């Protein structure tokens, strides 16, 4: 939480005049009383309001609280800068109210009330969707202070998924500022090229986090034209994107020179992982459920600290000397034919601190060469902690 002002009010007003307004009750005070009140004007009011707002649904925060006064609007739009657009079931309380909900439940217990309850539920569903669309339109057109824009639950709700349109992405990119550095469009499958073009053109130079998991809208050509130009990008999640393959990732590896985390899990169009050679800053790589094979181990960058190859059944030979520099390794549920060896024919001491080796017969050998091991997973729910 914040602290009381240590500066005099006039000097603070110059800096915060656009965000705060003096309470109207101060106009009724005398000069002496006003001078006393300015000394205790609390700067931590936004902290308190933001904490309170965090318990509200998005609709209440951005439509009701934001319209109370300047201070409340400042807290809603600036301090709550991580907007998570989700299918909010709590909107029923705004539409019906608690008492109406109780009456609806009571009526639904009678045969006569079943059909009316179904109709009411449908109307409630439609009304909730309209409120969500209204909220989304409001946010994307007022994104000046937005730092993070995340879409959640789009995979579970088709109607909700359809709300993320090219036009709304365009409004978002037009109204946002340089503050926007995180975009999560997981499972948003109704976007076309214009959406990614706007993101790249107007936000691409500032984005550090981009998540397109389960997206059927993104493909190799769009990766080449738009994602590869995001030079500040540090986190990229393309997992379960069925149309992303080697071609697009080659361009990403050459253009995204600051990338530290790459997740391409479940991308079965990647025929080989030679593009990894182009990364000079990559720290984490997730390739579980892919065609990652023994030949791809040679492409692991020296900067890599975490590797997840869980359920990569094409991985038959694992050379420990090539991955000894890692800190975290997950080889769980790999091929039962996996052979772990050391091409240098000498006992390698690894730097591994975390190791997941569920259903792996080599666990005893791996532990014996891992003196720094702190965490070991050897079963679905087993976790042992080791002192360094």
From TrEMBL:
GO terms for cellular component: SCF ubiquitin ligase complex. SMART domains: LRR_CC. Gene3D superfamilies: 1.20.1280.50, Ribonuclease Inhibitor. GO terms for biological process: SCF-dependent proteasomal ubiquitin-dependent protein catabolic process. It holds the Pfam family F-box. Residues 46-76 form the F-box domain. InterPro entries: F-box-like_dom_sf, F-box_dom, Leu-rich_rpt_Cys-con_subtyp, LRR_dom_sf. PANTHER family: PARTNER OF PAIRED, ISOFORM B, PARTNER OF PAIRED, ISOFORM B-RELATED. This is F-box domain-containing protein. It comes from Naegleria fowleri.
